[in-house]
Amino acid sequence: TNFKIHNIVPKNYPMVDILIAARNEEVNITACLDSLLALDYPKDKLTIWVGDDASKDNTWDIIKKYSAIYSNIKGMQITTSITQGNGKANVLAQLAQKSNSNWIFITDADIRVPRQWLQAMLAAAETEQAALVTGTSLVIGDAWLAKFQRLDWLYATAMLKIVSDLGIPVTTMGNNMAISRKVYNEVGGFESLPFSVTEDLELFKAVKNKHKTINLWSSKVLNKSAPQPTLLELLKQRKRWMRGAFELPFQLLGLLILEAVYLPTIIILIAINPIMGISFWVLKWLLKYTFEVICAKKIDEKVSLFDSFVSEWYSVLFSLASVLYYFWPGKIYWKGRAY
């Protein structure tokens, strides 16, 4: 876990556009926009583009209010489609066409960004000559479901960082990424990508073969996400992610498969030899907890022993539920839309 460290202050401050696709986000978007307005970056070099994707709540009213007060916030109502992709890809494609900066940053309407987000991402891109940069993202919240999501994200995104540092580019995070305008235009933007429920992965795949990509692990680029509020919404999110997982490199897909067969293996082992089975499970959990603590410390976060222990059991049950829900006949639902 000696993660690669990058510079956090860029030599230059290029023009930057931040793109946000918002749909039914009245609960979260105010905190998101407030955090973006607090960014430590020259205001004359920053434009925030927010596209309302046919929201059925007051999201558009909030966007209009902010754009009327702050000249660098631009709101757009998206009513037409120019992509083969999902609604979010369509919104981002149209926002990108309106913008004209050197760098495009993408985040979600339920995200709060740290003040140094832009600086640290750009500095890393400068240092590594990277065309696409992925930051760190964690779920926040005090409810138990939120705590479980937080640890789940911590483990998964830390693994992404490790394999990225090993030279195996895997994916990006659609709520915390930056891509150079030149490369975005080179791959044709979101409008040229095939349909996918994981538009961020499709963009990443189009970039990674010809250009360098990096994943960062730092509190300076730690975006904090609102949790999925219910178990059903969380299952819907994971079904969408699992669809994209089948397009991941075989190395990571192999790790995911090993994780999936872990539970039945433990159950069989406990049935045959309870002491050995339980000992094996405890050892595996302690190793995972140690990994979580080390990774969390690197981004100025903490992990409690109790939360990790309960989350391990929760993870087992949720993994089973996720597999059943994924193979249950039906479409993928996201933000009130079916795909």
From TrEMBL:
The keyword Iron does not apply. The keyword Endoplasmic reticulum does not apply. One of its GO terms (molecular function) is glycosyltransferase activity. Residues 18-187 form the Glycosyltransferase 2-like domain. Gene3D superfamilies: Spore Coat Polysaccharide Biosynthesis Protein SpsA, Chain A. The chain crosses the membrane at residues 248-281, 313-334. It holds the Pfam family Glycos_transf_2. Keywords: Glycosyltransferase, Membrane, Transferase, Transmembrane, Transmembrane helix. Coiled coil: none annotated. This is Polysaccharide-forming b-glycosyltransferase-related protein, glycosyltransferase family 2 protein. The lineage of its organism: unclassified sequences, metagenomes, ecological metagenomes.
